[in-house]
Amino acid sequence: TQAEPEGVWAGGPKRSGLDIVRKACAEVAVIDVAVLRYGLNDAHYYLSPPTPAGVAKFRDAYGKCIDALKAKGSQVLVCEICLEGGDRDRNADVAINDAIRDLAREKGCVLVSPGIDAENDPKGYIDNSDQVHLTNAGTRYVAGLIRAKIAAPVVPPATDPTLTKQFTRGTYTASVSLYGLLGAPIDRAKRDLSRFRAAGFGNARVW
């Protein structure tokens, strides 16, 4: 598998998480809060099996993401990845989480530890079909942990009652990743995207 020169795979050989952060930092004057939840693809495609050199390269790239965000005055939250099941290399998952915890301590980041394990998942946070991705319940759980750790002022309620918070326009850019929406009926896609737009989201990743 080809990896980015910086060491972060995060979505594909030409779409590293580090590049995304650099682009955001170049375009935005101030970033109040940033949440980094990278590492799952790195564990499977780049660090399986984990090696000291590979982990060091991942730490270096992830650390550069953190440094770039902190230079913008951002409060940085780093989130551990889930332990995968099936034929995935759980040793790689553990190595990634060890690196994330070390970086949080070294760079003064807020650590979010969901503690989700696909092989011990009584609450159904992991999709049984692939033993990798979060279910809706798992997504809500992780999002709740992150929200609880973000030190931000209360924002006005959403105009759509199904959305609990509304982003204050002009203060920061919010993005949303909509898994499965690409294959959904067009009416549902339009409805969901319109709701997120009304809530202040500026970008959507649909897949």
Task: Provide a short characterization of the protein structure.
The protein is mainly α and 207 residues long.
Give the topology:
Blueprint: H1 17-27, E1 33-36, H2 40-46, H3 52-70, E2 75-79, H4 90-107, E3 110-112, H5 136-149, E4 175-178, H6 186-198, E5 203-206
Parallel strand pairs: 1-2, 2-3, 4-5
Helix pairs in contact: 1-3, 2-4, 3-4
- The SSE string, one letter per element, is HEHHEHEHEHE
Q: Tell me the major beta sheet.
A: 3 strands, parallel
Give the beta-strand count: 5
Number of helices: 6
Helix content: 25-40%
Overall pLDDT metric: 77
The strand line-up of the biggest sheet is 1-2-3
Distance between the termini: 22 Å
- The rough form would be described as globular
What attributes characterize this protein structure?
3-stranded parallel beta sheet; 207 residues; disordered N terminus; mainly alpha
Q: Can you offer a commentary on this structure?
A:
With 207 residues, the chain is mostly helical. Helices cover 40% and strands 10% of the residues. The protein contains six helices and five strands; from the N terminus they run H-E-H-H-E-H-E-H-E-H-E. A three-stranded parallel beta sheet has the order 1-2-3, sandwiched between helices. Strands 4-5 form a two-stranded parallel ribbon. The longest helix is centred in the first third of the chain and has 19 residues. The radius of gyration is 17 Å and the shape is globular. The relative contact order is 0.11.
